[in-house]
Design a protein that fits this description.
The chain is built from no helices and eleven strands. It has strands spanning 3-7, 10-13, 18-25, 33-39, 46-51, 57-59, 67-72, 77-82, 91-99, 102-105, 109-114. The strands form two sheets. Strands 2, 4, 5, 6, 9, 10 and 11 form a seven-stranded mixed β-sheet that branches. A four-stranded antiparallel β-sheet has the order 1-3-8-7, with no helix packed on it. It has 115 residues and is mostly beta strands. Helices cover 0% and strands 56% of the residues.
Length: 115
């Protein structure tokens, strides 16, 4: 059974940093794209960033220059380094693994940024 476990969320003041981790068990991430999404209260889930299997990275315009996605295939883990956090970054952050083997999601980790 494939499981994605996010960690690293928490509360931080505006301008601060957090590093989210997504540890995957049950399947190797090496051939899959890894992504981060977020959902703020009352809003739809939105895409934040993706790192492909190559790896190539893509970031949403709203986080470009502040967030960096990465992966470590040896640790079967993806990361999201978040710097210069803003109150509007407050959301539940979800990890996603997508490839020919399927589409998998974690349970999410809360990030709260206070002004």
């Amino acid at each position: 059974q494939v499981q994605l476990m996010e960690s690293g969320g928490g509360s931080v003041q505006a301008g601060g940093s957090l590093r989210l981790s997504c540890a995957v068990s049950g399947r190797s991430i090496s051939g899959s794209n890894m992504g981060w999404y977020r959902q703020a209260p009352g809003k739809q889930r939105e895409w934040v960033a993706t790192v492909t299997s190559i790896p190539t990275t893509f970031h949403a315009d709203s986080v470009k220059g502040r967030f960096t996605i990465s992966r470590d295939n040896a640790k079967n883990t993806a990361y999201l380094q978040m710097n210069s956090l803003r109150p509007e970054d407050t959301a539940v952050y979800y990890c996603n693994m997508r490839g020919i083997t399927g589409d998998y999601w974690g349970q999410g980790t809360q990030v709260t940024v206070s002004s």
